[in-house]
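Hi L., both proteins are below.
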Amino acid sequence: MIENFLRSHDFADTRPGNVEKYFIREHLEQASGKFFFEAGAVNGFHMSQTATLESVHGWTGILVEAHLDLFDLLAKRSRQAKPVRAFLGDPGGITFFEQKILGHVGHSQLRETRINEDCIVCETQGVEEILRLHDAPPVIDFMVIDVEGGWRQAFRGIDFEARRIDFLGIEMKERDEEIISEMIGRGYELETVLGGEDYLFKFKG
């Protein structure tokens, strides 16, 4: 329910996500800059993967959330990072977004077909398109893609030729060998998997 997210509404109530905690512990000191990109930002605090980077370590970046009510909460909060409402996928694509009204609204996600009345038609944007529109730097130090079942669509919108991503975390509901193989081919190593779903890739250069 939306009410659950209203209770976690500022830095004092932040519950850091596992990917952010791992990155801070293992890689923060080696980061070349202080810019993040988080997709699936919810309200910016509840299980956030970037709030501690911002509040404690002085980072900034872009926060993407697709659910309208969650985005409204995100935009009203005290985060300094740029909030963006977007549906990640191929630039200019048309698909469905299951915008849950009841239950766990944080599990809203893209669908290939209109599976129920919560689904709305939406136009997708690529990650690189959003980065470009908001003048992101050439190096993204920390990127998290946490969009439930839509990880493949979101991944397709990343342009690895346009800018460097030093550390990339992707929530995958099942081990996606095609994405893992592509990441390795692009000079990344699969550093670890947290909780069976969060796949963390580090750029080796």
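That was the first. Here is the second:
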Amino acid sequence: MDGTGIYSGYISLKSITVEEGNTSFFTDDNGVLYNSEKTTLFLYPAAKLTEEYIIPDGVGTIAPHAFNGAKVKKITMSDSVRTIGKRAFYECAVLEEMTLSENLTRIGEYAFFKCVELGEIKIYDKITAVNEYTFGRCYKLRKVELPETINTIYSSAFRDCSKLNDINIPESVLHINGNAFCGCSELAEITLPKSLKTIGSGAFQ
């Protein structure tokens, strides 16, 4: 596996099984695909209906597209997870609650794009940037807690989060890029820190 992740494209996929003797991959009791060392989660079956999934201790990487379109309402991430790949939770349309690892160092672009039921999120202090469209079109996202380590909020990071009304901009933030909060129609007030150096075009349009 080259680290780019797996996207099956099969929205009816409910489980994955790895035959005994395969030394490259492993599936857990839920039919979720990992590498054999169980350090990378490659694919959660999109059609598996689950109230909650706990990403186990020892997993360090959520591969790109891993939960793309998954039908799970609550995800709890162990603190061993350090990286969330691009589009990892893209269009998880029923995801209401997400607990992130306290040791995350990177959340990829579009990671939570169109998680339309997600209500709030807390990001911990090893993250230094909110990438492009990370939470774009999370229409019910109301509250975001950002750590004092964030230096850049990239383009369209929170675009069209139309219910967002509670977010702190930490004193560490230097740059808010174009369209970062575009379409956040319920964001009635915001305090910009003295550290801020640039605001991109349409950032609060």
